[in-house]
Structures are given as C-alpha cells and as structure tokens.
Design goal:
This is Multiple sugar transport system permease protein. InterPro entries: MetI-like, MetI-like_sf. Helices cover 71% and strands 0% of the residues. The protein has 277 residues and is mainly alpha-helical. It has a single domain, classed as Orthogonal Bundle (MetI-like fold).
C-alpha cells in the first residue's frame, strides 16, 4: 500500500509539473490572440487585461490592407520550401557520406563541419553580404534561398540517425549490385522518414522566422518576407500592438497546423537520434 501511495504521489507531482509547463507554454499564444482582437487603447491599459473590452476582428483585415501581406506571405512560402527541399537533399547526401562511406580525412572534415555550429551567423554577415553583392544576388530569391539550402546541424542530425540503421541492409544491397546512390535513395531515405521530418520542421521554423538575413540582403518591397512585414508595425516611438499581434497570429497559424500533423514523426526522430555515433 505504501508503494502504491508513493507511486500515485509521484505521478500526481509529475502531472502537476506538466500542467504548469503547458500553461506557461500556452499563455504567450493566448495573450497574442487576445491582443490581436483589442483596440490600441485597450492594449495599452495598465494593469493589462486578458480579454478585450470590445472585440475588433477588423484588425486582421487592417493587416492585409496596411502592408502587402499577400506578397510577403508568398515570398516566405517560396523561401521556406526552397530551403527545406535543399537541406533535405544536400544534408542527407552529406550525412550518408559521413555515416557510411570511407574516404581519407572523413573525421577531420566532419569535425571541421561541426566547428561551423560554434560560429554565430552575425559574425559572417558582412563577408556574406560582400559575396552576395559580387554574385549580383542581392534583392533576389537566390540570396534568400541558396545560402540556406545546407546546414551543419542538418548533416549532424541525419548522420546520427543513419548510423543507427543496420549495416546488414547496406551489405545485402551491395551483394545485389546496388550502387552507393541507390542504397542511399532506396534504403536509407525510406527508413529515415522521422529524421527527415525532424530536419524539415527545424528548417521550416528557421526559414519562416528568419529576419536578419532578409532584412540585410533585400531592399525592395517585392522581395520582403513576413518577418519584415510584421516588424513594420513596430515604430520608433510607438507600436501598434493589435495589428502586430494580428499579423503574428496569421504568420504563426500555418506552423502550428504543420506541427500538429507532423508531431508524431518529429518526436520519433528526436527520440531516435543520437543513440549511436
């Protein structure tokens, strides 16, 4: 009886902690949604109130008319799809090479690749700008997509997963006469769905929320992305919080829906990565 009581107490404590954590995670989204439906005066009340005194659903329509939201949205989708497709292909190819192939200096090259993770992106921003200008890529989709189609993190993530797959499959495929690329394409990729989905989610989040790179590398309104468009509601002396939050809700909603549908693969991939390597 004492053991059962202690087990119930531990389970209760765990559930209380999980509920508290869930509330902490959900509260910012609830506050964002509430503020998006307030008037400007209502959003500036002290002390602040959770529910608006009057519901202003027209804030969402104002966002669409105040900025070129449709163009920003389309640009963000194109950039996100381009970066995600590129990383899934290139990172998986590199990860397969590091996990399964033997070539001189493999470990040294992989360590050098991992060292890139320790370099903040802001440090190389000026050299990157100079290179993009010399390539005449500034203010084009090239500058928004191509530099982001490969990452050291994605290569490391997929390499760790590939190393957990049975080597017997690769050896059997070699006996049947499969080339390295066919082993990668027909065996490793189909077995790595959860890891690929995990990388896709990380890449989508990074591309969808990217602000600094598009802000520096683009100048025309036709090439702006959502993060820059939404930030335009934040002025030097005042910020239109209801419109800012309405734009944030519309920008966040696709990511939330995507995660809901892919969370099973995402959690599975994170749980299986790093087991071996």
């Amino acid at each position: 009886m004492i053991t059962r009581t202690s087990d119930r107490g531990r389970r209760l404590a765990v559930h209380i902690l999980l509920i508290a954590g869930a509330v902490l995670m959900v509260t910012p989204f609830v506050w964002m949604l509430s503020t998006s439906l307030k008037s400007f005066a209502d959003s500036m009340k002290v002390p602040p109130t959770l529910l608006p005194s009057e519901w202003h659903f027209e804030n969402y329509a104002k966002v669409l008319t105040t900025i070129d939201f449709g163009t920003y949205y389309l640009n963000t989708i194109l950039v996100t799809l381009g970066r995600t497709a590129g990383q899934l292909l290139l990172c998986s190819l590199a990860a397969y090479s590091f996990a399964c192939l033997k070539f001189p200096g493999k470990n040294v090259i992989f360590l050098a690749l991992l060292a890139v993770l320790m370099v903040p992106s802001q440090v190389v921003m000026i050299p990157s700008f100079v290179i993009m200008r010399q390539l005449n890529w500034l203010d084009t989709f090239y500058v928004l997509i191509i530099p982001g189609i490969f990452s050291a993190f994605g290569t490391f993530l997929l390499r760790q997963f590939f190393m957990t797959l049975p080597k017997d499959l690769e050896e059997a495929a070699k006996i049947d006469g499969c080339s390295y690329f066919r082993i990668y394409w027909n065996i490793y990729l189909p077995l790595s769905k959860s890891a690929l989905v995990s990388l896709a989610i990380f890449t989508i989040l990074a591309a969808w929320n990217d602000l600094l790179w598009p802000l520096i590398m683009t100048s025309s309104e036709d090439m702006r992305v959502l993060s820059i468009g939404i930030s335009s509601f934040q002025g030097q002396h005042s910020t239109d919080y209801p419109l800012l939050m309405a734009g944030a809700v519309m920008a966040t909603l696709p990511i939330i829906i995507l995660f809901i549908f892919l969370q099973r693969y995402f959690i599975e991939g994170i749980a299986m990565n790093g087991i071996k390597g």
